[in-house]
Structures are given as C-alpha cells and as structure tokens.
Amino acid sequence: MIANKKSWNIKDSHSIISFETSGGGNWKVWDRYITIGGKKAFHIGNVCDTCEFFFERLGGANGANMGISPKEISHTLEKGLTKLDNDFLSKVALILPNGEYDVSLQEVNPRFVELGTKQDYFSNEQVQVWGMDKFWGLPHSPKIKYYRGVTEERTDTSKLFEFIVPTFPVNWLDEETIDMYKALITDEQKPTALCLSVLDVKEPGDYEDETEYPRHWCLTHYIIDGHHKMYAASLLNKPITILSFLAKKECIATEEEISTLFKSLN
Questions:
Q1: CA end-to-end span of the chain, whole Å?
Q2: Number of other residues whose CB lies within 10 A of the CB of residue 222
Q3: How far is CA 266 from CA 89, 107, 181, 261, in A?
C-alpha cells in the first residue's frame, strides 16, 4: 500500500552507487547491473522482455559499506517516515545515482525466503513459466536469501510479484541491532528502509495455452539502508515502510506499465 508518491529527478549526484550495462552477442546493451564503488554488486537481469526475470548478488556486494547513508538520514529512517518531505528527499538524493525516479512511501510485510523452498520464486513461479535453466538444468540461484512482499493477480494472464533484496546475508547482521528493531516494531512503530527499485515486465515469446499467469510484473527493491529492520520485521511478521526510488529508465517496462503499477498498489 502506498502512502505517498511523487516524481523526482536526481542530477549531479556523486553517489558510489550506479547502474551499468554491458553487451552480449549482437546486442550493445544486454545485461544490467547495480554497482557499488565501481564494482558489480547485483546483476539485475537483461533487456529482453521475453526472457525470464532474475537478480543475482555478485562479488562487488561483499565489500560494500553498510554505512552508505549518512547518520542523519539513517536516524530519520530509524524513526520511520509518515510522508514524503522534499528537504529529506534532497538529502537522500545525494547518495543515489542520477536519473528519473518515481518516489513512493510504501508499507510492506516482508516474508523471508529460504532458497529452494515453496516460497522461492525462482524454484516455483519462474520454473512453471520458463522452465529450468537450459544449461544447468536447475532453478536460478540469486546467491542471496531475499524477501517477498505482495503477490497478487493483475489479470487472467498476469501477476505482480514484489521482491526485497538485501546486500548482506542475515548472518552478517548484528543481533543487538535486530533486537532493537524488534522492540520498536513490537511497539507498533514502523521504521523505514531505503530502497533502489526497478520494475521488469516479462512474458515468454511462446508458451502453452494452459500456462498460468505467463506475464510477470516483477517489482524489486534493492535495500540501501535498512537490513536490520527488514529482517526484524520478517521475524515478527509485521509491517514496516520502505522509501522506494523507482529508477524509471532502468525498468523493463513502459511508462504506462509503471503508471498502472502504482495505481494497483494504492
């Protein structure tokens, strides 16, 4: 559910986070990445709208600094946002890449996913539509345990899938900080996680008539600040909020599809 939404354009940022692409075969642009400090931290899929959706944590995430957000920003997010404040967004914009964004404040109820279980998108919903990896004969591995948010039917042939992706494995997190957020959330507070988000709308070029929901709307939030609070919320099965910066030019989706997404989340 979205509390607030507005457009935001970031210029002249000196962020250590960036989006990058590389070519493949006859394509000048094929693979898409999020980099941190010049190193590839996440492979966020390719530009093909008939290929399967995926993300994969890469080695560049290992050395990423958990203190990307200045203390003032982290402190405000810890208390939790209730609205989109322009002054605060201007401060956050300094740590994010240049680009055009749809910024939203959303409530999420994160569910922690163990890879290979019934909750794992890549072992279930993706395989049901695209099948196993044709080389490995296995489901895709994102190389990180992640969270799922909303999963809902959009039409007779399409579903929305929401993912929240941490940079750091949960075993890297600090137990005392997790306990602090568990106490806050138990007290009905809703701290806010900062996320860099992308929407990919994918549908196979060919599929059987009986295939259920072949068109996947995959909304993915990559956590910039908020790993401990997200994990704490998942342990308690309680909601928190996310401040999502949806990078419009990095999506595999049209302007109309992005607009439709936000209407469906209201």
A1: 5
A2: 26
A3: 21, 11, 27, 9
Rounded CA separation 203/213 (Å): 9
CA distance 178 to 40: 27
Query: E strand or H helix at 114, and its extent?
Result: none
- Mode of pairing for the β-strands spanning 240-247 and 192-202: parallel
Backbone angles phi, psi at 164, to 5 degrees: -125, 120
Given a cut of 90, whether residue 136 has pLDDT beyond it is no
Scored b (16 or more CB within 10 A) or e, 45-80 reads bbeeeebbbbbbbbebbeebeeebbeeebeebbbeb
Tell me if 168 sits within 8 A of 66, measured CB to CB.
yes
Give residue-wise pLDDT tens across range 115-126: 999 999 999 999
So what's the pLDDT on residue 67? 55
Q: Is 44:122 a contact under the CB 8 Å cutoff? A: no
Instruction: Examine the pLDDT at 7 and tell me if it is beyond 70.
Output: yes
Nearest to 233 by CA among 177, 175, 182: 182
* Distance (Å, whole) CA 139 – CA 56: 13
According to DSSP, the β-strands at 39-46 and 27-36 are antiparallel
What would the two tokens of residue 247 be?
Answer: 């990078």
Please tell me the predicted confidence (pLDDT) of residue 1. 66
Burial of 205 (0-12, 13-18, 19+ CB in 10 A): exposed
Q: Do residues 140 and 43 make contact, with C-beta atoms less than 8 angstroms apart? A: no
pTM of the predicted model, to two decimals? 0.96
Count the neighbouring beta carbons within 10 Å of the beta carbon of residue 227: 22
